[in-house]
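Q&A log
Question type: sequence-to-structure
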Amino acid sequence: MSLGSKWPRPAPARPHEWERLRRRPEHPPFVRAAPLRTWALFLALCLAEFLYFDARTSKHYTWIYPRWNDQIQYLTEVYTGYADARENGWGKGLWHSLTMPAAQGALDRPLVLLLFRAAGPSRSAALALNLLAWLALQAAVVAAGLAHFVECQWADPHSDDFIAGARRVNALADLIFHLSGDSGLKSPRIAVDQITDCLDGQILRVICYERHGQWVPFRMLLPTGYFAEREDVLMDRLAQSDFVLLPNDDSAGQGYPYDQEMRALRPKTQEWCRAHLSALGDFPLFGRTWTLYGRPELAPPPGALRITASRG
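Response status: OK
Response body:
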């Protein structure tokens, strides 16, 4: 866009600043360091859990005779399996522990044998297997959650189509900003025949302020709201507008009563805009093409305006 503007311009950014603003943001350090920190905290938590569990079982359970419940059967099976493994070999011992007729503890028995081989047979080791299984479950949950977190942080949050549409919204805001400034409009009036956030006046104010450093109090004459309005009111507001945005298709947008009313009036509003306003360009936005109309005095000289999707 080769237009001058009467709006005050902010100081131009240095070349390296433009490059930083144009490229996609790098992932913050906390995302890159998240796996290491998370696992360090998790291992510290596991160690604290294990020490607490061992202290509690040593104080309240391991020195007391096993009760007539799961503990006596469990201990009998694992001690028997350990003795069998020492006598007949670890392969036979593990197979024997897996093929015992009792289904209860079938998953624990071979694991306890391995634990006994590493730490020796004891009530503490037999009970610690339950905690180790709980820690393994926690590790699986943490790993799954961490993997999902890293995937979400490293993946692009928007599709390429959305990014292209967002850049065209910026280009549209730039065009309206420069044309308003060149024409001396202090409070440009805008009409849009569909309810959409990307073309809302409040959002255009923020976009222009962030991109150009000037607060422009855009006034939205249309839409009038979510509900349908009388045709004479809609056409009167259309006639008062400095800029008008009309879609080039026959859809009703999000289907609000206002959208449906404007879709029915679209042939009439398009005819009025072509007769009284200047077409300033077409903008493909999120699957639809919009035409921007403006008052004839707002149109730039031929060849002075080129509409493209801005890079940011």
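Response note: Strands lie at 189-192, 219-222, 243-247, 278-285, 288-294.
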